[in-house]
Amino acid sequence: MHPMHIGRYTFTLLLLLSPSALAWRPWLPHAPNTTTPSPSDPLGVSKKYEGSSEFVHLRYHMGPVLTANITVHTIWYGHWPVPHKRTIRAFLRSVSASEPPHPSVSGWWRTVRLYTDQTGSNVTRTVHLGEEKNDRFYSHGRSLTRLSIQSVIRSAITARTRPLPINPKSGLYLLLTSVDVRVQDFCGQVCGFHYFTFPSIVGYTLPYAWVGNSGTQCPGVCAYPFAVPDYIPGLKPYAPPNGDVGVEGMVSVIGHEIAELASNPLVNAWYAGQDPSFPTEIADLCEGIYGTGGGGSYTGQLMDGRRGVKYNLNGVGGRRFLVQWIWNPILNYCSGPNAIDQ
Ligand SMILES: *[C@@H]1O[C@H](CO)[C@@H](O)[C@H](O)[C@H]1NC(C)=O
Ligand SMILES: *[C@@H]1O[C@H](CO)[C@@H](O)[C@H](O)[C@H]1NC(C)=O
Ligand SMILES: *[C@@H]1O[C@H](CO)[C@@H](O)[C@H](O)[C@H]1NC(C)=O
After folding, report:
1. Average pLDDT over all residues of the chain
2. Where is the signal peptide (predicted)?
């Protein structure tokens, strides 16, 4: 174990004593002010503490989960370089791919498949890439609100040429905004979110997610650990496995949102907390945790690629990705296929 990580490991234990540790990102208001680790031996404690079950009361609220094959329809909003699109498509394709070696993206999805609906049917194993729409000319401007995001989706499904198909049962609509697009709450509170569209705006109830490229706006927050915020001195960013810091950060956020959409598409299925307007969902519980021992600013045990690359999952075409873990409802902690003790 890297010495710095021993410190972080201990720090994690301190953080786990407070519920705020449940979803860690380097948001400024949560800047750690207790970074002096105690010298206790981390190996003396249980290894299974990724996430904390003490504060977590994840419950099923009887709504649907996505048990039918999922088709992801992507909207590329703004200027999207081809290599960046390829990285994200490869990640999405990897979710159901069986060829990549362990630990794989499909192994990661196995945790999401543990969630079931009222009939006992599991979340599907199959995630297909659907149609794509390019919104190259920023149809709703370079600054979007939560509501105007729905208008972008409406434009994509009502476009005169090649509209996206309307698929409320098993379609997921993924809006990806380029580096130069501002979005309400982006960087301050969120790196992405999911919800469903309102019939009054879009004409249908469609589960959708938005994820933004934070590359120039707040990489230290939304592309951590490939970028590190200034207020954490001495922490070196990891090299991104696919070459672009902002896109690399998006991959984990896309994984987060799709996992939550699958288990809570209409925000009435799997979540913790009393308030359905601020549900804590299966990926929120494990934000910032990518490997064994993860928590706080420590990602957990990762795998090393060349030139400082760090990753935890294998994908199609020899790609590597770093994707946060997911809350495991059977084990009652966060889990992923790269756990060193599984
Ligand atoms: C961290 O700082 C906040 C605000 O200054 C304070 O309320 C909180 O008690 C501090 N946490 C610890 C563990 O010292
Ligand atoms: C379906 O979910 C149940 C309950 O979590 C789990 O025991 C079972 O292994 C899951 N099946 C698959 C194929 O993942
Ligand atoms: C769902 O996907 C599987 C491949 O994983 C395929 O064999 C099956 O035909 C699909 N089902 C539907 C209804 O499209």
Report:
1. 86
2. 1-23
Max distance between CA atoms of the chain, in angstroms, equals 64
The tokens describing 36, both together, are: 């002096």
Ligand 1 contacts (CB < 6 A) are 33-34
Residue nearest to atom 2 of ligand 2 (CA): 114
Q: Does ligand 3 have an atom closer than 6 angstroms to the CB of 18?
A: no
pLDDT digits (tens, 9 = 90+) for 63-89: 999 999 999 999 999 999 999 999 999
To test the ligand 3 pocket, which listed residue (66, 69, 121) has its Cβ within 8 A of the most ligand atoms?
A: 69
Count, residues in the chain? 342
What average pLDDT does this structure show over 270-292? 89
Tokens of 253: 């956020």
Angle at 278 between CA 195 and CA 151, to 5 degrees: 25
Bond preceding residue 103 cis, omega within 30 of 0: yes
pLDDT at 235: 85
Q: How far apart are CA 235 and CA 228, in angstroms?
A: 7
